[in-house]
């Protein structure tokens, strides 16, 4: 084969039987090869095609495995995913510096835009649409559904806190202690004896916590009662949790935590089963309500405490002491202590209390002693005078 003369700005190479496939027609075409050094281009001549040759920038040429199993190497151009040059002359390869470089994905900017759009859509759903749906739809969940969800979640909490393979966490049922708790609810003016009445429980666990569940469930842990210095502090926490129930905050929080799938399930009647209840167990026991929800529950508590003749400052006293004693540790009245405006809430509770008013204890000393022993197995009635 006669080679064209060497040119000043490039060099012709013997193609040695190299062929080119354009990807449109699966027919190999004979080629000529010339490297234009100054332009950094591999010129691929197509003498049998009757059309102009191709100019492939050497920096954009990549080597592919020869899937046909023939000798030589298979080259492609980044910008053309179909065309192939089946090269038989290895001397050309040393002038192709980026054969092994992994090419950047075509349309990277478009893919990045799509990815950013997808992330934005998810963020919109999580940050805006789900909370908006939760707030709007909470009022449409029927009371029976809320009670079923609260009962199922309460059972799951008992099982989760007991540990694997153990019976559910005991519910404290000291008769005199629960009677004292009931008296506290009555003193606070909380409705009793109806289907929508507050359902109050004490769990025999050292955690210093209390929380509300959908359907009117208010749950105290023995640890919080043990940590209280008097009945008014317990009454203040109780009033705060009842405020969450009255404002339906647990139901809103449940809907938000369950996400869009959980919202659909709850709205279509799946109140007591499925993955939503398992997920909500952790979410509701350590609920971080919004600033508005916390302030709303505080405001409710101030009102009922004042009406009952109990100082609203008891709520701030409880919050402050627990914060100072336990810090922001996990499980220590977490949803009370987590909000950054806690100091202003403590100050407000004390500002609302009337300095010249003679406040009283919500229950008697004997009833407070009974409540402190609500989980004790060896409870004895007070001695007769």
Task: Give a written overview of the molecule.
The structure is a single chain. The protein is of the alpha+beta class and 385 residues long. The chain has 2 domains: 10-95, Roll (PH-domain like), CATH 2.30.29; 141-372, no CATH class. Helix content is 44%, strand content 14%. It contains 12 helices and 12 strands. The chain has helices at 108-137, 143-162, 175-187, 222-227, 231-246, 249-267, 275-285, 291-307, 313-326, 334-337, 342-352, 365-372, and strands at 10-13, 19-21, 29-30, 32-36, 41-45, 54-57, 61-64, 73-77, 80-87, 199-203, 210-213, 217-221. The strands form 3 sheets. It has a 5-stranded antiparallel sheet with strand order 3-2-9-8-7, with no helix packed on it. The protein has a 4-stranded antiparallel sheet with strand order 1-4-5-6, with no helix packed on it. The radius of gyration is 37 Å and the shape is rod-shaped. It starts with 9 loop residues before the first strand and ends in a 13-residue tail after the last helix.
């Amino acid at each position: 084969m006669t080679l064209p003369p060497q040119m000043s700005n490039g060099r012709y190479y013997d193609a040695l039987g190299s062929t080119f496939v354009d990807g449109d027609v699966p027919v190999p075409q004979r080629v000529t090869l010339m490297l234009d050094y100054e332009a950094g281009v591999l010129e691929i001549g197509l003498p049998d095609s009757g059309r102009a040759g191709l100019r492939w920038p050497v920096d954009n040429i990549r080597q592919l495995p020869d899937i046909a199993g023939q000798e030589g190497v298979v080259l492609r151009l980044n910008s053309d995913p179909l065309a192939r040059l089946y090269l038989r002359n290895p001397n050309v390869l040393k002038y192709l510096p980026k054969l092994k470089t992994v090419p950047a994905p075509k349309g990277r900017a478009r893919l990045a835009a799509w990815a950013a759009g997808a992330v934005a859509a998810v963020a919109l759903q999580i940050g805006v649409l789900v909370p908006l749906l939760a707030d709007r739809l909470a009022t449409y969940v029927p009371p029976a559904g809320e009670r079923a969800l609260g009962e199922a979640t309460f059972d799951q909490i008992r099982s989760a806190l007991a540990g694997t393979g153990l019976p559910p966490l005991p519910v404290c049922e000291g008769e005199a202690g629960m009677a004292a708790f009931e008296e506290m609810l009555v003193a606070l003016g909380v409705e009793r004896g109806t289907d929508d009445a507050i359902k109050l429980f004490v769990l025999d666990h050292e955690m210093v916590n209390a929380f509300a569940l959908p359907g009117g469930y208010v749950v105290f842990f023995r640890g919080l009662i043990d940590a209280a210095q008097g009945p008014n502090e317990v009454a203040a926490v109780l009033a705060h949790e009842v405020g969450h129930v009255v404002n339906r905050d647990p139901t809103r929080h449940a809907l938000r935590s369950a996400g869009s799938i959980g919202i659909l399930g709850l709205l279509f009647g799946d109140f007591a089963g499925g993955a939503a209840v398992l997920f909500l167990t952790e979410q509701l026991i350590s609920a971080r309500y919004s600033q508005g929800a916390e302030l709303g529950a505080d405001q409710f508590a101030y009102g009922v405490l004042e009406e009952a003749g109990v100082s609203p400052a008891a709520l701030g006293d409880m919050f402050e002491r627990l914060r100072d004693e336990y810090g922001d540790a996990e499980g220590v009245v977490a949803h009370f202590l987590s909000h950054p405006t806690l100091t202003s809430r403590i100050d407000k509770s004390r500002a609302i209390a009337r300095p010249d008013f003679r406040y009283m204890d919500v229950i008697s000393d004997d009833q407070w002693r009974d409540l402190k022993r609500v989980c004790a197995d060896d409870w004895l009635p007070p001695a007769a005078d």
